[in-house]
Write a structure and sequence with these properties.
ABC-type nickel transporter activity; 25% helix; Rossmann fold; alpha/beta; eight-stranded mixed β-sheet
């Protein structure tokens, strides 16, 4: 049984323009599963719903958000009350924004509050040393840290939590290559010890080094979930046209840009969300959004995928 299941998740936001209220659906029919001991890398363009998925799982969406679908943890639905109990304990977040640090609390103390096993001070100092944070950093407040130091502090908090699920939302920007390598290796280590890791990232190349599966997001939905081994060569084993285009757009591959742009939540097409940019699109594609289906050991949302 997957430790985390997201089924047909939709997230909408109410916004006001003058006296008129509008509702924008930013996530629709999104599906992912995460198993213990696995690293699932979630990739996609900015605005594709990656961070919103993390916030929906943790129950930290803003008040103007409405949500439908089902999120399960260990086979049971994640209700708001259950999210509050598990958040920071069994499900830990490495957030994208350093503003998640408490501005009035020394960073060493913040990390120690997350330690579940062993001596909190010793564990905190050990993880700081691992991420190249000097001992004097533990007495600093967040405003005294550089951006890279703050990210390493957030990373430390999740790593000492003993959580069964770690959701890392862009954990490596602003870090030097050695620290990035160390952090990614640590994610692999905790996964090998039974933890489930969801790595949200733009860095597909780094994700390929440690992930087991890749989930590709587009315009607020999942278009493909595939074993990491499929991402090689010219993308012959990749299923969805967008996933292939994303892969071939990388500098180390063909560096071919994708024409057009991802649609805004206020102007989503009626059928397949990628159809306006897809060379394979037919009339049927423009009428109904395809369902996710199993194909060659993965999942894909495309009627043309073979």
């Amino acid at each position: 049984m997957p430790i985390l299941e997201v089924e047909n998740l939709s997230v909408s936001f109410k916004q006001y323009t003058g006296l008129k209220q509008k509702t924008h659906k930013v996530i629709s029919s999104l599906n992912v599963t995460l198993e213990a001991g696995e690293i699932l890398a979630v990739v996609g363009a900015s605005g594709s719903g990656k961070s919103l998925l993390a916030h929906a799982i943790l129950g930290i969406l803003p008040r103007n958000a409405s949500i439908s679908g089902v999120i399960k943890y260990a086979g049971e639905e994640l209700t708001p009350d259950r999210q509050t109990v598990l958040r920071g304990k069994e499900i830990a977040l490495v957030p994208q924004s350093v503003n998640f640090l408490d501005p009035l609390m020394r960073v060493g103390s913040q990390v120690r509050t997350s330690v579940k096993n062993g001596n909190a001070v010793s564990v905190q100092r050990e993880v700081f040393e691992r991420y190249h944070l000097r001992q004097e950093v533990e007495k600093m407040y967040p405003f005294q840290l550089s951006g890279g130091m703050a990210r390493r502090t957030l990373l430390s908090t999740a790593m000492v939590s003993g959580a069964k699920v770690i959701i890392a939302d862009e954990p490596t920007p602003g870090l030097d290559p050695d620290v990035i390598k160390e952090a990614l290796n640590n994610f692999r280590e905790v996964a090998d010890n039974g933890c489930a890791v969801m790595l949200i990232t733009h860095d597909i190349e780094s994700a390929l080094n440690i992930a087991d599966k890749i989930a590709v997001f587009y315009a607020g939905t999942t278009v493909e979930v595939a074993p990491v081994e499929n991402f090689k060569g010219h993308g012959e084993e990749i299923r969805h046209p967008y996933s292939k285009a994303l892969w071939r757009a990388l500098p180390q591959n063909d560096f071919i840009p994708i024409p057009g742009s991802q649609p805004h939540p206020s102007s989503l097409p009626a059928g397949c969300l990628f159809a306006p940019r897809c060379v394979m699109a037919t009339t049927e594609c423009r009428q109904v959004q395809p369902e996710m289906r199993k194909l060659r050991g993965g999942m894909v949302r495309c009627i043309h995928a073979t």
